């Protein structure tokens, strides 16, 4: 297995360099201040509503996130144009000056007890975040090397997550500190805005990529153009919709937490902070686990896994809340602190549900976002991201609207949680029916993470882009599933046409767009069509995998390779990559004639497999015998 380069610096070393550190702290402080302000406002509306407004707290706590997101709907397309036209360092400073002005207005609102000044500041911070979003995603490629981008993005997202969580916790704590909580909150937000402004003046110059660009102020037309362009790539657009659905789900859930903490858990503001912290830790841990569960590649099989968890634990939150209403009835009419709540047996189930919703949300969202980055046209990725931001904003505004309407019609907050969980199941079924690749990858992922332990050797030799032919030994009926689950991108397998008639496997391989083939003596037309389909797939830059033996091995040895590979390469001059599967000869779905129970016992509950990938062979050097020798050498003695 390939080893990491020990000379490559740790990604956190970027925090010591001026090309990255000032930008990092500027965006970190912006995320921190957003949540320091919004959370404090939601807390005072929830726990001190009568001194601020006559409106129902549930109405205001759903309205505030909706107003914050509204500028994303209106101005995302324009903000993207501004980021291309002007120097990003200068634009960032303008945005930070705007933040200082907004926080001064908010400070007046805190001091005068004027709710609508604070609501106006919420809208202002939404505009601030909308303007900074495109700058944030476009700055890093200008200042980091290609090999530093993954690490730089990782540190940036980590900083954003920590900033959001810290801001939410401090905002909820500061504003209720008597008797000067409002003063502390006003002073803290202004101070953080000023520090962020100072940090922005250390950001190095970032020349505009398109200074001659004429900005269109028709935000409606620009937004429509962005979405229309994104919709041309079906997988990317469906992934964008899935991404936006997660923000819908999260917006519904998070907007209810203050009132839920007070009216259903009978807790003080500390209960709200506790739920927020548990949910945020779930999202963070799920996001970090994604890399381990996916083998450090974009594994979209985790998306259905995440969706299942969102439905199961979202629905269980409804039942857990009803159970707590019985077990925690003695707390009714009180304002219990965290320790009192933790002494109630029913609270642990609720906390577990929030943790799992956050964790499975991480499994759902991280692969989707990575897939969008990977599959989008590199020349138009900024437009794609802008389109996704617009969709996210629309879905979050819709979430606020749905919550306001349903709660206004008499639904309880636990019932709203249940409705959202059931909607999640319907949306998942719809998306996965449109793009079955998600579900197919999920089944393959389950196979190699539950039944088997798969070790890869030089898997990075499978190209991340461009056409190539993979050749491999053929040992069992699950060979293609194992290879497909390990590969970093979709593979077009060439398979015997009879397997497509198998009820379950046939559906999987049709979903994966496998190419059926038949022997010439059996169906010459289908055989010729297979070669045409292979040539077309390679012409379009796809990867094709064939099993040149033409049949499963009956003795565990590698059969002679047939001449079809030479015919393929004669038509399409692409590299051929030899591979070898190890450990599948004892699989229950191989043609091994040994006792099936003995094989199962010998292999164990989680049998070990390996996929070894060899060096690419140039088209002019391809011969069936030469490739068979390469595959045999890769396999070695381990069948």
Automatic annotation (TrEMBL):
Q: How does it sit in the membrane?
A: Multi-pass membrane protein
Q: Where in the cell is it found?
A: Cell membrane
CDD domains per record: LPLAT_AGPAT-like, MFS_MefA_like
**Listed transmembrane segments:** 20-47, 59-82, 117-137, 158-176, 182-201, 235-257, 269-290, 302-326, 346-372, 384-407, 413-435
Q: Which UniProt keywords apply?
A: Cell membrane, Membrane, Transmembrane, Transmembrane helix, Transport
What the entry lists under SUPFAM superfamilies is as follows: Glycerol-3-phosphate (1)-acyltransferase (SSF69593), MFS general substrate transporter (SSF103473)
List, for all copies, the residue spans of the domain called Phospholipid/glycerol acyltransferase: 468-584
The entry's protein name is MFS transporter
């Amino acid at each position: 297995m390939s080893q990491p380069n020990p000379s490559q610096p740790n990604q956190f070393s970027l925090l010591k360099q001026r090309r990255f550190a000032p930008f990092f702290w500027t965006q970190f402080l912006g995320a921190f201040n957003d949540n320091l302000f919004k959370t404090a406002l939601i807390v005072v509306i929830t726990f001190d509503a009568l001194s601020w407004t006559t409106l129902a707290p549930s109405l205001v706590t759903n309205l505030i996130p909706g107003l914050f997101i509204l500028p994303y709907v209106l101005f995302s397309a324009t903000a993207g144009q501004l980021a291309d036209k002007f120097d990003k360092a200068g634009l960032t400073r303008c945005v930070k000056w705007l933040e200082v002005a907004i926080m001064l207005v908010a400070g007046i609102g805190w001091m005068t007890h004027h709710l609508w000044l604070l609501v106006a500041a919420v809208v202002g911070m939404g505009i601030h975040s909308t303007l900074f979003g495109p700058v944030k995603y476009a700055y890093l490629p200008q200042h980091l090397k290609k090999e530093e981008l993954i690490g730089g993005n990782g540190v940036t997202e980590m900083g954003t997550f920590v900033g959001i969580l810290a801001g939410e916790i401090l905002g909820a704590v500061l504003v209720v500190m008597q008797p000067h909580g409002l003063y502390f909150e006003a002073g803290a937000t202004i101070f953080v805005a000023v520090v962020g402004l100072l940090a922005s003046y250390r950001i190095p110059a970032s020349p505009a990529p398109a200074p001659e660009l004429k900005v269109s102020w028709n935000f409606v037309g620009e937004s429509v153009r962005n979405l229309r362009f994104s919709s041309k790539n079906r997988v990317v657009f469906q992934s964008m919709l899935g991404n936006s659905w997660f923000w819908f789900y999260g917006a519904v859930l998070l907007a209810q937490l203050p009132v839920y903490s007070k009216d259903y858990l009978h807790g003080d503001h500390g209960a709200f902070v506790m739920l927020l912290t548990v949910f945020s830790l779930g999202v963070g841990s799920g996001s970090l686990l994604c890399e381990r569960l996916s083998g450090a590649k974009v594994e979209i099989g985790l998306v259905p896994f995440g969706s299942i968890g969102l439905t199961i634990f979202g629905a269980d939150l409804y039942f857990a809340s009803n159970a707590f209403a019985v077990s925690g009835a003695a707390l009714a009419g009180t304002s219990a602190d965290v320790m009192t709540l933790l002494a109630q047996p029913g609270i642990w189930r609720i906390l577990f549900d929030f943790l799992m919703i956050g964790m499975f949300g991480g499994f759902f969202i991280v692969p989707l976002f990575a897939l969008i980055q990977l599959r989008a046209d590199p020349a138009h990725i900024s437009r794609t991201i802008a389109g996704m931001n617009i969709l996210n904003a629309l879905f979050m505004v819709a979430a606020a609207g749905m919550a306001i309407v349903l709660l206004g019609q008499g639904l309880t907050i636990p019932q709203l949680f249940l409705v959202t969980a059931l909607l999640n199941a319907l949306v998942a079924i719809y998306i996965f029916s449109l793009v079955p690749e998600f579900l197919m990858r999920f089944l393959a992922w389950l196979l190699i993470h539950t039944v088997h332990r798969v070790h890869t050797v030089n898997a990075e030799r499978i190209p991340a882009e461009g056409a190539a032919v993979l050749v491999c030994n053929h040992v069992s009926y699950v060979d293609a599933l194992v290879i497909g689950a390990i590969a970093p991108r979709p593979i077009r397998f060439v398979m015997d046409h009879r397997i497509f008639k198998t009820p379950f496997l046939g559906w999987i391989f049709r979903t994966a767009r496998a190419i059926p083939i038949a022997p010439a003596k059996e169906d010459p037309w289908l055989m010729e069509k297979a070669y045409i389909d292979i040539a077309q797939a390679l012409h379009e830059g796809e990867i094709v995998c064939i099993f040149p033996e033409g049949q499963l091995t009956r003795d565990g040895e590698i059969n002679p390779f047939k001449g079809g590979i030479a015919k393929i390469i004669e038509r399409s001059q692409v590299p051929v990559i030899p591979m070898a599967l190890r450990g599948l000869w004892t699989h229950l779905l191989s043609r091994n004639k040994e006792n099936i129970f003995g094989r199962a016992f010998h292999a164990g509950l989680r049998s070990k497999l390996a996929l070894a990938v060899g060096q690419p062979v140039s088209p002019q050097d391809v011969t069936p015998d030469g490739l068979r020798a390469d595959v045999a050498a890769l396999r070695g003695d381990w069948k």
